[in-house]
Amino acid sequence: MKNSKMHLSTETMNLGFVRKVEALSGSSVRRCFQCGKCSAGCPMRTFMEHPPNRIVRLLQLGQYERVLAGRSIWYCASCETCSTRCPNKVDLAAIMDALRKLSWDADGPSKESLVQLANRLFIENIKTYGRQYEMRLAAAFNLRSGKLLKDFMLGPKLLTKGKLKMFHQKNRNISEIERIFSRIEEMRKKGEAP
Ligand code: SF4
Ligand code: SF4
């Protein structure tokens, strides 16, 4: 019978991408030997199309685009069970976090692109107002996601209970917040931030 063993090497993976994940997470992707203990303990595993151990395997096989296009990274609850259980000290929770960061600039729509849209609008609000403006966030999300009536009936209830405000004032330290965003932008240009 033909020997079908597969040998992982720098040629089987996209080394540039793996290095980015390792730098951001502070954890080795290459060290995983596929024992599956992480997936056995993951509470979100049933919602994921790729369980945690397979996420690492896909990275080792250079198939990071499948990982970024999938929903698994968005269902991860950052509970760190996987990292605690790993006998090889692979910090999978940190790897999941790094993958979510890297998906920000990835080409092609993620299956959970609405999560990315919500993230972007959240950050835009902070940039503009220096704080969160929930009414604007909900309205912009419904408009840009095409789900115009999503949670529409909740709005009046939240307004009457004072949980939502119709109008919002900018944070008085907005100039400080603008400086933070400019600094992050500079760091990203220099490759010092993801
Ligand atoms: S527990 Fe660790 S070594 Fe085992 S499959 Fe998961 S990440 Fe890999
Ligand atoms: S950190 Fe994420 S991947 Fe790891 S066990 Fe928790 S939910 Fe699963």
Molecular structure report:
The chain has 194 residues and is mostly helical. It has two domains: 15-103, Alpha-helical ferredoxin (Fumarate Reductase Iron-sulfur Protein, Chain B, domain 2); 113-189, no CATH class. 54% of the residues lie in helices and 0% in strands. It contains eleven helices and no strands. Helix 8 packs across helix 11. The chain is globular. The N and C termini lie far apart (47 Å). The mean pLDDT is 88. The structure holds iron/sulfur cluster (2 copies).
Write the layout of secondary structure elements.
Layout: H1 15-25, H2 37-41, H3 52-60, H4 64-69, H5 72-75, H6 81-85, H7 92-103, H8 113-129, H9 134-145, H10 154-160, H11 174-189
Helix pairs in contact: 1-7, 8-9, 8-11
Question: What is the compact description of this entry?
Answer:
With 194 residues, this protein is mostly helical. The chain is built from eleven helices and no strands.
Low-confidence stretches: none
Shape: globular
Helix content: 40-55%
Note the beta-strand portion: under 5%
What structural category characterises the helix and strand content? mainly alpha
Assembly type of the chains comes to single chain
Bound molecule kinds, no repeats? iron/sulfur cluster
| Topology, number of strands | 0
CATH architecture of the largest domain: Orthogonal Bundle
In angstroms, what separates the terminal alpha carbons?
A: 47 Å
CATH class of the largest domain: Mainly Alpha
Alpha plus pi helix count: 11
Chain-averaged pLDDT = 88
Tally of structural domains: 2
Biggest sheet record: none
Radius of gyration: 20 Å
- Secondary-structure element string: HHHHHHHHHHH
CATH topology-level name of the largest domain = Fumarate Reductase Iron-sulfur Protein, Chain B, domain 2
In CATH terms, the superfamily of the largest domain is Alpha-helical ferredoxin
Protein name: 4Fe-4S dicluster domain-containing protein
Keywords: 4Fe-4S, Iron, Iron-sulfur, Metal-binding, Oxidoreductase
Domain 4Fe-4S ferredoxin-type: 22-52
Organism: Geomobilimonas luticola
